[in-house]
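I'm stuck. Please check this protein.
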Amino acid sequence: MTTYPIDQIRADFPILGETVRNKPLVYLDNAASCQKPQTVIDSIVHVYSHEYANIHRGVHTLSVKATDRFEAAREKVKEFINAGSTKEIVFVRGATEAINLIAQSYGKSQLQAGDEIVISAMEHHANIVPWQMLCQQIGTVLKVAPMNQKGELIFEEFEKLLGANTRLVAIAHMSNALGTINPVERIIAAAQAKNIPVLLDGAQAIPHMPVDVQALGCDFYVFSGHKLYGPSGTGVLYGKQALLEAMPPYQGGGDMIRTVSFEKTTYAGLPHKFEAGTPAIAEIIGLGAAIDYVTAVGMDKIAAYEAELLAYATEQAEQIKGMNIIGQAAEKGGILSFTLDHIHPHDIGTMLDSVGIAVRAGHHCAMPVMDFYAVPATARASFAMYNTRQEIDVLMQGIKSLIEVFG
């Protein structure tokens, strides 16, 4: 922890100097969205101030500059997750759009009625609803692997679901509601032993740990830029080249075509086949700047630092009578979901905000998880690379005061 440059990191995020209700901001809603370092903000301002134009096909100077910066961001993503080629990096608006793309393109073209898709009981709605829609459209069947009370996947039950009709496994790398880090290497090995492709929803995992898609061996990996300290409205779909080449386009229009006539259209090659229309140009360049930033700090260092924060927060929470931690997996990322006896999570969120503490309260787009634990909602404190033990102390004191107020 002594080698981690926390003071410098905090200085790089201007919003952390803000006050909320006359209190220093304690931002613990990072699982919903992370704040942005000045380098990301500056990169977007620079594009709009000096280098903005539409990308691809333009021959004038600004278009060439913007195209080069945009495609350089694609190269940065490729290196960041160790993809085999930039052809395997498709820019989308977020992990949600990426999963929908796979469902509507890969799903509709490769699956048929009776084929099965396996997910887990801890999935975000974005990795449930697109598959339910596909089931309604073509008659596929959704299977759900259960979890235990700690919030861990019951691996033996997951394996039992991998049958002759299983055509895809789609599972969270890390749960947004519980913090559980799934045993993705075992999941991929078990599925691929039966020639079943695996999609990993990496929206929560990507800002907290190193990700190497070639080492993992997954077939698809998706994540959102806004949770990786980058701009909102950005995201990445990684797919193995052979799979992407076999998939039809998800949307039609500009930038995904090679030729168009009234009789026939031919499509661009990868990855542009899946990038119809003008993208979020400056924002994708900003995502490249965010990757530069976390890479300079070091993903291994970030993971180790956040693990210490989580351990400290868990230790403090366990000492507070009436505070119940929801999700206590052995392998867990920096998320502390909890309830307080006799206090609704929405009241927790509102009261903590009154002293400058930002946490999330609700179902966290994971209603089946709430149903499993028989709670209407949880409060969720989620940690990032810029949070501190002192902020955790403020959170815990706020919770103690809240318990006293509610008696």
